[in-house]
């Protein structure tokens, strides 16, 4: 693991908070979102800001910030990794560590729907705003769009999402929409990964805002991976496949991703916990395997 000095980070934050903006200003940026490979490999680490800290059987696996930063720095150092998706606190740390040069930096925009909360679907935009991403010289934004047909509040999320897509397009910044159809079962929110539900979510997300020119999709693999070809015919928007919680069947997850990556609209992967916290503990090996699928 790359060693991170927490005391040094805290010291900079305490005495020189302006160092974050200075690090963002001097960061070497890539000239384009998709590099020479024609594929995109993003490591996702925006889970903690929703209180989603569990990995497998460990409910607080992502709560240790030192450990998370070291895993992220290692993942970002591996060949073929294009960038990272995270909230401001994590990206600020990575800027101070100098880990974001020549990487795609994607800010997570709505984290208000806390995991397990009664207001989980009231997913307000409590993270990066379009103007923040522009000011910091970041490369893209990501938002979560969960829709429950039985929850009237979903229309507020749809409306706000559409306006945020407009704001990003005005700045010519790509925005990745992660859409889900959800249902509440025994009080818990469940995502529907059936082919029909994923198809509907893609259709809804693709039509938001006044332009889709800068919109990407971040989509899950369906319950039956064989359905992905038909599902991805729903839109011409470029897409990346998200990893999600894969349990102990790492090899099975890799095969699902490999199959999806053959589809014409799928341009890459955006994977978090399954690469940062693999079952065997080998972060570099998990990341390298995922890159190899591209």
UniProtKB/TrEMBL annotation:
In terms of Pfam families, this protein maps to: Cgl0159
The highest taxon in the source lineage is: Bacteria
The UniProt record lists the Cgl0159-like domain at 38-291
Query: What name has this protein been given in UniProt?
Result: Deoxyribose-phosphate aldolase
